[in-house]
Prior knowledge:
The protein is an alpha/beta fold. It is built from 2 helices and 5 strands; from the N terminus they run ββαβαββ.
Amino acid sequence: xxxxxxxxxxxGEILVCRGTDPAWTPLFxxxxxxxxxxxxxxxxxxxxxxxxxxxxxxxxHDATRRLTDGQRVRLDGASGSIELVER
Length: 87
């Protein structure tokens, strides 16, 4: 996703974006996880994900280009891993 104002996220989907700021926060209510291209332990996405209990992996190079809408992935926020899941 590139713009939180036009983003539609269904419950159980993982939010993949370049980075987050407060405008993205409502999407955390339905997100099953967060993957961002930029960020660290104390950036907005990481902090809000922890507050909402949403697993997050941040700092993933070209995530918005490499991951596509509808693609199935499994992420582990503790290890920072992302696994592609075949259908």
